[in-house]
Write a structure and sequence with these properties.
about 350 residues; alpha/beta; Rossmann fold; formyl-coa transferase, domain 3; 2 domains; three-stranded antiparallel β-sheet; globular
Length: about 350
Amino acid sequence: MSDNNALPLSRFTIIELNDAGMPVPLRLAASLAGKIAADLGATVLKIEPAEGDPVRRLPPFLSHGESALFQFLNTSKQSVRLGRGTLPDLLAKAQACLFEEPSSLAEMVRKSPATPIELAAFPVGMEPMPFSEFTVLALGGLLHMVGEPDRKPLRLGGHQASYAAGFAAFTGLATALAARDAGRSAPGVRVSLTEVMQWVNWKAASGAEASGKSPGREGKGSEFQIVPCKDGYVAVVYTVTQWPAVRALVGDRRLEDKKFATRAERRDNVAELYAILRPWFADKTRAEIQALAQAKGVPFGPIFSPSELLESEQYLARGFLTKFGGGKIPQLPVQWNGRSFAPRAMA
């Protein structure tokens, strides 16, 4: 860029087309992709139905009644309520359009010069059916991975299916904009929520290929577990090559037994392994465990609450949480030549 103060995508206009019947999971995915582009400087025109985006009415709500979810997903954008004949004029100015397929407006998008970024629930050729984020998580195999094996599956917190698809849609959008910027033809992009979740859960397919069985919920038989400590919980996570460092960190001679020598043997004796490990964590705080583990190159992870993340040393150093609308929200976790991208209020 010739102007060092210009934002990376400031020369692009993008339309986020929320058709009236657009399902909420696809709406959230399109909104996240559009938010990233808008925070990076693109002019993002969010087309809302006459009654407003349904996400405006979804919880959680802020003190004045606004949807916190809507506020977060629509920073830096411009809201547009369509009048008769205005969409073709807007599309003529846009470099790309985020939209749902099928859509009553899809054909108009395809005939415009804007590159179509299409969001769908299912892969091409799969029979359409009613869906929710929960069913998409199930189809992607994620519900088979979370929770105790003798209990019902747990829904992942937040909107992970929609957000993963939103990141994928933005990646496709950025690729299309780069092609246009270089004077090349920018092909359309199609993102399927179900395929995105199957990609996120790649271990299921690779595990089935390797062993004939997809990994699932193992509970207390899991190789990596959440264990209690003096002031909360810590995730016990490490790679195969880090086992000697874990053994040295804990310092219990019983871990030198040959029954724990290999990953396969540790999995076969996981109950005995954690009977040795748990007492080491029990009398230490998360901060103490993290400091000791980092000194040995072991990636044990302390579990933090949302309120504790507000005081996270790493987040504070990066200025990751920024003031917005009387509170704080995360900003994009990227920097451009050392510059962060603070979200702006929706126009």
